[in-house]
Amino acid sequence: MKGPALSRRGFLGATGVGLAALATTGCERVGRFLQYSSSRAPSSKVAARRDLTDIYSICDNCVNKCGVRAHVAGGRLVKLDPNPHFPKSRSMLCAKGNAGIKVLEDPDRLKHPLIRVGERGAGQWRVATWDEALDFVATRLKVVREKYGPQGVLFSSSEGFQERFFRTFNQAFGSPNVCRHPTLCLASSNLGFFITYGTVPEYDIENSRYIIMSGANRLESFITPDSIDLMTVTRTKKAKLVYLDPRFTVTASKADEWLPIRPGTDLAFYLALIHVLIEEKLYDQAFVAAYTHGFDELTAHVAPCTPEWAATETDIPAERIRAIAREFAYYAPRAVIYRGRRSSWYSNDTEMRQAMAIANALVGNWDQPGGIVPKDAIALGSVELPEPPYPEVSSCDGVSEEHPLSRFDDGNYLDMRRHILADEPYPVRGWMIYKQNPMHALPDRALTETMFRKMDLVVVIDIMPTDSAWLADVILPESTYLERTDPVEGFNAPYPFIALRRQVVPPQFDTRPCLDIMRGLAERLDLNDHFNYDMDAFIAAQLAPLGLRTDDFLATGHWSDNKTRAFGATRNPDFRFKTPTGKIELANERLRRRGFDPLPRYVAPTQPSPGQFRLIVGKQAYFTHAMHQNNEWLHEICPENFVWINSAEARRRGIADGDWVTVRSPIGSVRIKAYVTDRIRADCVHIPHGFGQRSPGLRLAEGRGASDQDLIVPREDRLSGNAALHETFVSIERA
Ligand SMILES: Nc1nc2c(c(=O)[nH]1)N[C@H]1C(S)=C(S)[C@@H](COP(=O)(O)OP(=O)(O)OC[C@H]3O[C@@H](n4cnc5c(=O)[nH]c(N)nc54)[C@H](O)[C@@H]3O)O[C@H]1N2
Ligand SMILES: Nc1nc2c(c(=O)[nH]1)N[C@H]1C(S)=C(S)[C@@H](COP(=O)(O)OP(=O)(O)OC[C@H]3O[C@@H](n4cnc5c(=O)[nH]c(N)nc54)[C@H](O)[C@@H]3O)O[C@H]1N2
Ligand code: SF4
Ligand SMILES: [Mo]
Questions:
Q1: For residue 38, what pLDDT is reported?
Q2: Which ligand 3 atom is the nearest neighbour of the CA of 624?
């Protein structure tokens, strides 16, 4: 059955929003949000309702996946609370998690499959049945495959509990072209630690007594349980926090020491810290002798990296660097240099994270309470899958040649875009996108849009009419996390446990979970032998080796066989780290073998010329990337973003707080309001990420604030190929 042709109005759906946008000067106002959440139903009132059911499930409003307790009455979700039993998030549910109810109820949500009828991006769609939409996608995928081979389709997706089904479909289809989020996010941090330890470790912040953080804005960019633990240990003064960031963030406000470091110079700080640890013999000599490789080479390497030298690079006084190195060693092994998460910063990012990894190893804080700890996991079973075809060509991003040390199976996003735009080494004309918004995730939006427009087929599987969905040929609406049961998921912090995202309410519209969408496509492309299970069978296979059933998650939403973190299994001189030498590598043999410098070498970053600023970006507590700007409650707290500019610089330019300004970079310009503040250094400006959305389908977010991606020049970290998002210089003037 064909649906009626829909105009932009029809796409938006029938329900109005009726929320007048509030004029605010910043994002510090939370008044009405609090009223909303309390008028919704505080737990005590909810509990009084007779028809109330509590369902333990898992938040999906960001990567953290905190535990939620959903109160359902009369088949309706009435409130979301934290699941206090959930080890990773305990009694925390952030503003975004609370506002999950408005994810479900967003009147702009995708409600049924849509097929484009007008020009790409013109916003004319017709509603389709699932059969029709899946037939359409399958037929067009076959056309692209016949013309260009399976490699003619790019499969891009970000993390999520059902992403695996998208990947299974991708592998069965036979395309090597994959783009996941790491090369926009944490690829360099992962690589810097992996090459040093042979694993990417976790942190035991709860038991730390001394924490050094470089721009890991944990009290706004949440990572649970680290954010919760950091709040506890700083509030109770159990730990000292030293925080380096060119901006005075909320995390800085809770720190014992905020060091407004010159952007791009953290590597100099860590090399000097290592210099002091070695020069003053503050390192753990027994640990270094037993567990590490390359100490002498490291010693020679950091000999010239004195605190006095680093002070001129970083703007942090030499005596502070010396004092911090001494304190760090004093509190070790309950002292950590926290590696952060988004490390898509500079072109030397892997080396900076490698230096952090080395400094941690020197004080022996490995696999002990309060230190850095190896990841551990509970093994789950799995359904049997046939071996997918081995792709006949390698991926189009050229990652194996350009970044031989990076993870090939995640793909490299910026290289992929560059190669696709140039048709190198072969054409890619189909793009399947799952749970990802490339129009906001990649620097240089115009280039990303060109890539969209080059495609013969773009399919977006999302829950919202994002800027990327707006450029698709077919939009397949997934049911939201509150409307579906997902596979069991393993967690490793604060200790290994597993948990189940359980359906809270049935799908409210004509949407489907990813597994059903992939099964529908697989059937039409004769790939069903990769999908001969449904969700119940998949979960049963996961739980079989543990002798568990889904009902075992009813009482607390999670399961674990050992409720504490076990320490010390790898503190055994016979333990072999997964590095070429079997030791923690202070001088890196993986790097040396590939012809790279085995030690992190500092190169001073280029400085902005007079009148220019370095643009630095980051997150706000109320939004995940470009995901919640249209959420009614969160939009009300913060309807737009502002460019942060130092007061003295603003004064010089006649810019007052709240003035409209134009920010210009080599690739574009944006109009945005100024936040004039002493909370940022004078040599840089900051634009919070995720605003400046264009899709008319997003009635609250459209046209509010500006997108950092219209300014950032695409650059990469040399070793990992991670995007280097802080290497763009901009000018600012009154608009
Ligand atoms: N300039 C700049 N660029 C950045 C960053 C930055 O700070 N500044 N941050 C970088 C980082 S750290 C990352 S991780 C990447 C993130 O880049 P993305 O992975 O693109 O970002 P997300 O916001 O996680 O995208 C999630 C998408 O999934 C959709 N979605 C939400 N729930 C569901 C669901 O249940 N099903 C489906 N199918 N879709 C759903 C959302 O509507 C959204 O479109 O961006 C990177 N890019
Ligand atoms: N609320 C919220 N929480 C989130 C997310 C979200 O979107 N919103 N996203 C999640 C994801 S996917 C990720 S990857 C993490 C990201 O979390 P973080 O790793 O904390 O990353 P950002 O928020 O991007 O913050 C980067 C910080 O680095 C600072 N900075 C910039 N340049 C330099 C420099 O040269 N040196 C130093 N020392 N600091 C610098 C910036 O001012 C900024 O405060 O957050 C996760 N949690
Ligand atoms: S940090 Fe917030 S948005 Fe992210 S999973 Fe936890 S509650 Fe949800
Ligand atoms: Mo990220």
A1: 36
A2: 3
